[in-house]
Amino acid sequence: SAVISQKPSRDICQRGTSLTIQCQVDSQVTMMFWYRQQPGQSLTLIATANQGSEATYESGFVIDKFPISRPNLTFSTLTVSNMSPEDSSIYLCSVTDTNFYEQYFGPGTRLTVT
Amino acid sequence: QKEVEQNSGPLSVPEGAIASLNCTYSDRGSQSFFWYRQYSGKSPELIMFIYSNGDKEDGRFTAQLNKASQYVSLLIRDSQPSDSATYLCAVRGNQFYFGTGTSLTVIP
């Protein structure tokens, strides 16, 4: 399986600021996703990061709040904009194998907004 | 109706016992089924996947799939305290759907 890293691993941010989370994969992958996991909850898909085109957002998530970049097949960023305490969560990058069968997760970014 | 449903637990079993985790899904067209283990404060780790009806064994873990009943389960034999975690069921149709997870505690 691919090795996935995320930066930062955690951060504490002030309300109204923005944070960009980076996701790096050690091999080229077709599909990259961004999830949010709030305390005690399961995973919520934010968007699919598409290489060379705009991300595909799930219901309830918008580009202005969560802009995503995917400049190549090994890297993506998620920005959490104009943060509020409700954005406090773990943000996870994931990738699938070539056949879109198995999905693997990065270590996550734990975000606290004060 | 949720796409994937799991009993949230918590499920407690004594060390050495068999832990049984269950999951149902709503989309009959689902093609692939996965079990993830998530330790507190960590990201989900893929531990089992199954594509065909029947059983699939990997060490102490057995995944069972019954597409007619839209049911998938995970059995953990000889449970160890290190198996204490939340187990997430995931189903792939056109996209991945995750259940809310079952918390398992193995009591020494």
What does this structure look like?
The complex is a heterodimer of chains A (114) and B (108). With 114 residues, chain A is mainly β. Chain A has strands spanning 4-7, 10-13, 19-25, 32-37, 44-49, 56-57, 68-72, 75-80, 89-96, 103-105, 109-113. The radius of gyration of chain A is 13 Å and the shape is globular. With 108 residues, chain B is mainly beta. Chain B has strands at residues 4-6, 11-14, 19-25, 32-38, 45-50, 54-58, 61-66, 71-76, 85-92, 96-98, 102-107. The N and C termini of chain B lie far apart (37 Å). The chains are: A mainly beta (114), B mainly beta (108). Chains A and B meet through β10 of A and β5 and β9 of B.
Structural class of chain A: mainly beta
What is the helix tally of chain A? 0
Number of strands of chain B: 11
User: Element order, helices and strands of chain B?
Assistant: EEEEEEEEEEE
Assembly state of the chains shown: heterodimer
- Envelope shape of chain A: globular
| Low-pLDDT stretches of chain A | none
* Overall mean pLDDT of chain A: 93
- Estimate what percentage of residues of chain A fall within beta strands: over 45%
Number of strands of chain A: 11
**Which percent bin holds the helix content of chain A?**
under 10%
Largest sheet of chain A: 7 strands, mixed
Count helical runs of chain B: 0
Query: Greatest contact pair?
Result: A-B, 18 and 19 residues
Q: Which spans of chain B of ≥5 residues are poorly predicted at pLDDT below 50? A: none
Distance between the termini of chain B: 37 Å
Mean pLDDT of chain B: 93
**Biggest sheet of chain B: strands, sense, closure?**
6 strands, mixed
